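In this section we walk through a basic example: taking a raw amino acid sequence and producing a predicted 3D structure, encoded as discrete structure tokens. The instruction is simple. Fold the sequence below.
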Amino acid sequence: MQRAIRWVLVLAGVGCFLPLAGAQSLDPTNQMARDIFKQLIEINTTDSVGNVTTAAEAMAQRLRTAGFTQNDLHVDGPNERKKNLVVRFRGTGKRKPILFIGHLDVVEALRQDWSTDPFEFLEKEGYFYGRGTEDMKEGDAILVTNFIRLKKENYLPDRDLILALTADEEGGSSNGVDWLLKQHRDWIDAEYCINLDGGEFEKEDGKPILAAIQASEKVYVDFQFESLNPGGHSSVPTPDNAIYHLAGALARLQSFSFPLHLNEITRNYFERMATLTLGQVSGDMKAVAKVPPDPAAAHRLSESGYYNSLLHTTCVATMLSGGHAPNALPQTARANVNCRIFPGEDPQEILKTLERVAKDPKVRITIVSQTGPDGKAVPVVPVPPSPLLPEVTKAMEKTLSITRPGVPLVATMSTGATDGKFTRIAGVPTYGISCMFFDKNDDRSHGKDERVGVPDFYDGVAFNYKLIRELSSSR
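The resulting token sequence is shown next.
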């Protein structure tokens, strides 16, 4: 999951910071949350040697102990190491269920790269350290804690609340959300989905800046550029060279920009942000938000890599290989081109555009297929954005007014990918809401010495609890 880059639509004004959790001794809820967080961090769930099933079973046992029945708990998956946890909190059925998702797997972490053991939960100088503390076992711990708390309180929601903690969001061929939708949709079918692996809450210098709802995300697709040639002895070169063909195609791609594309979220983003900036940038933002957008303004804004990603599909070469011997003409030359496709655009149309841009019949371009647990290719399809449901935005606004008065609520669109793409494709509107604040200048997800602030974690527990009740209380 990519936390660092997102699109924002400002919906309210910035305000003050009111800490929710201090350094005092922990109350029972926060102690439980800490214990669960520690347990999850210390279970290795990497794709190489880890075991997601172990983490799923550990959380299932806690939920059973809290009173969830066996009929409402499922631990299942396509193989023994990649089982997913699904639990249903029964409500009155007045409204359709809400699905809450998080992934249990984490990216690889090498002990020699870290200052501490990445699979040892460490609290130090106001931070929790460990692989997955930011991406995203903190969210898993928050959800399990609050499901248990609500159960112990004998809370009766007006709708079923479903929790799914899954495998292979970070990679691998056994994505849990995809598998559940295909094999057991009835376990997780819902009116909409809340994904704690998106919609980051940002802070800077200790002060909250914004709280986000991720309503959409770009589509991740890899393309292979390949040139093949009979080769020969390097002492007798010819212009027909696989590396030259590939290099020419990549050079043409480098100078190409995909067509300007805006939607309701990005148009409103630029419209609102124009009031918070000055000079030429402010004017360009206003101009690009108009219908139709001003091409010159879009061109100037696109000189910024960040704004360019907001206005276009992007494709960039990320890996390169070629040749088989230093004294031989290359028989093969290949490149991986990673595209982040604007929601609603067809990946097949992007493929056709890349072929036109490459403009070389000796460079073959194909979509790099992803495979499912059965080994079959998973088709790449457009991911629709989710409409901003007033029910969700109003619940967020109310919860923010209690916990973080004055902090702006924003609608976001991630340039990275989350499991929300599977639920959106399946027709379930999905909203990324991380519920806890992350330092925008200290993003360590997927990196060395991953960490989150201790009070931020406990504040996230409280925020999520209030949000769940707001979304599921009788009206």
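Looking at the output, two observations stand out. The chain is about 35% helix and 25% strand. The first helix runs from residue 28 to 41. In the next section we compare this with other chains.
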